[in-house]
Amino acid sequence: MSDIFQEVEEDVRRERYEQLWKKYGNYMVAAAIVVVMAVGGYQLWKTYDLRQREQISDRYQAAQALAAASNAPQAETAFLELSKDRHSGYATLAKFHLAGAYLAQGKRDPAIALLRELTESSDPAISSPARLRLAWTEADARPRNEIEAILQPLTAADNPWRFAANEVLAYMDLKGGSRTQAESEYLKLSGELEASASLRQRAAAIAQYLKANPSNGSTTAPPAGPGSQSK
């Protein structure tokens, strides 16, 4: 008897499923197709996006090779195109290199304009090196107070770029004839354990040079160099 009840229950359940399928089957199929198409479309988009990024990476490396080969005009063209790309990471890096290509050709105005644009970024990882590069680029053309204004956001006691900023200011003091002040600043930088090793070595070398040549009539010594981005 229990077998009969079980068969009847299964028949009723099957009839319900058949009724549900007749009523909603088309919707279920359509939903399944939409899901499959969405997944497939996403995979296609990922593949396309990856290929685009690989192509941009190749173009960026090719532009770097042109710059390394001192082919500034072609490097300028390549980095200019990359700077317009929608992938902002490469576009931003390209702008830094583009400024370098401009400077290599003596095109100071567009280089400075581009660096000033980068200093306005809300991302400190972009604005900070841009400020440092701009300060070095303008160091021999602007008075100390203007260079100090460019570097002001970097000189806070907890800013990781403060040592590189102070190196520029030490150079400005040295260029301006304040040898004693500059020597003191370089000596202090040479002992900053949180500064990079290369910066400490440069500062120590210049401090030693100034101490060994206190009155040779020169107001300058080898600086870190325009465009330095050491932290």
Short overview:
The chain has 231 residues and is mainly alpha-helical.
Low-confidence stretches: 224-231
Distinct helical segment count: 9
- Beta-strand content estimate: under 5%
Rg is 32 Å
Global shape: elongated
**Strand pairing plus helix content: what structural class?**
mainly alpha
Order of helices and strands: HHHHHHHHH
- Number of separate strands: 0
N- and C-termini, Cα separation:
88 Å
Q: Helical percent range?
A: over 70%
**Mean model confidence by pLDDT:** 81
How many strands, which pairing sense, and closed or not: the largest β-sheet?
none
Tally of discrete structural domains = 2
Give the helix/strand layout.
Layout: H1 2-68, H2 72-83, H3 88-104, H4 108-119, H5 124-138, H6 144-151, H7 162-175, H8 179-190, H9 197-212
Plain-language structure description:
There is one protein chain. By secondary structure, this protein is mainly α. Helix content is about 75%, strand content about 0%. The protein has helices at about 1-70, 70-85, 90-105, 110-120, 125-140, 145-150, 160-175, 180-190, 195-210. The longest helix has about 70 residues, at about 1-70. The termini are far apart.
